[in-house]
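Why show two proteins at once? Because comparison is the fastest way to build intuition. When a single record is shown, students tend to memorize it. When two are placed side by side, the eye starts asking what differs. So, the first record is below.
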Amino acid sequence: MLGSDSKTGNGEPNRQQSRPHFDEIYELYWKELYEVAYRRLPMAADAEDMLQDLFLSLLKNPSVIAKEGSIRAYLHKALKGRVIDFYRKSLLKETFESYSALSAAGHTNHPDTYLMHKELETLLEKEIGGMPERMQTVFLMSRKGMLSNEEIAHELNISHQTVRNQISAAIKRIRKALYQYNLAHDAGTRMILAVTAVLLTPR
């Protein structure tokens, strides 16, 4: 709680009145959240843009301020979700840009290349998005966040072995999904290898 609840006329707490106004929330938490985002994102501009979007969403949905028991916890959870989403989208974009480059160079010749590209993009987004939260976070920090296993363990306050286990489990899930897609669509070895190489190789 950020302040004691005032009472309404019927004796019930008025939670809306007990919350700081938006400007106060911004002043209280912007620096703290920026430091977290700055550590986890590749560029300061990315951290600034992400916080701008986060606070803008809060401004557009002020009911959150009244509903949440801890505004600080809500903001950190929302930021964490945005960081994960940033890396997921960035990794998928890089994966298919690399594959598109191979296609343009004539290294793939499947007649339905574009359709498979979109299907694989949807498949991988679903597979990564469906991972348990910790697995997804560790995998993306490793593959796109350019962090070593030791750095991830320190950042998330988990053991080095847990990091290795989570990455291994994530890779198995993705490889299985790609293998099943290849069997069902006869996508061709070059295409699957191109996607797999980009997606599963640590940065």
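Second record. Ask yourself what differs from the first in the token line.
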Amino acid sequence: MADRQPHLNSNFYGPAVPPPSKSRRGRRLLCTILMVAIGFIVAVGILLLILGLIYSPHKLEFNVSSARLTQFNLTTGSNQLRYTLALNVTIRNPNKRYRVYYDANEMAILYKNQRLETHWLPLFFQESKSTVVVGPNNFDGQKLMFLNSDEHVEFNAEKANGIYSIDVKFFFRLRMKSGQVVLKFKPKVYCGLKVPLGSDIDPNMISLFSNTACDFSF
């Protein structure tokens, strides 16, 4: 005898569906919070990128526009280097938005990685899209040099050619300001010069100096 199935009326919907567990609701909430956080981080990143492109400053452009070397003698035996050098430096601010405040300015000349003399330049201010000339900067003195044999050979070769390799370094503490945006930097500037030795009665040698661009790094 076949088993009879119970009669199902229209009010029977099957077993009750259990409500979502608390752990599932917690995972959904966590996913929602995570998506919102990721969206916020992405939006902030895009905003910072746009602001960086707008307000990122261009490097300042330094050039040694003139150099006048009228004495550069190394005394044999005492190794005293006697020098007389005058420099003019041109600084170009290519930024449209930023003005530059030079708060601390150190300028040094070196020969064979040995510092000959240091000058502290006056504080000054530079408008946007402008050029200033710093100088003349006069260096006149003597320095005890410690040259190895190779450096002595290089000095004698430069003396024979009448052109000396002299380095100029700048150390700054400056502010670049655009409205309420103020950026502070301590850039370094390096200028590798080839300076002909001349005299006041031989201006042709001095005129051989070529305008020299410097390396600028923030």
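One difference worth noting in the second protein: The radius of gyration is 36 Å.
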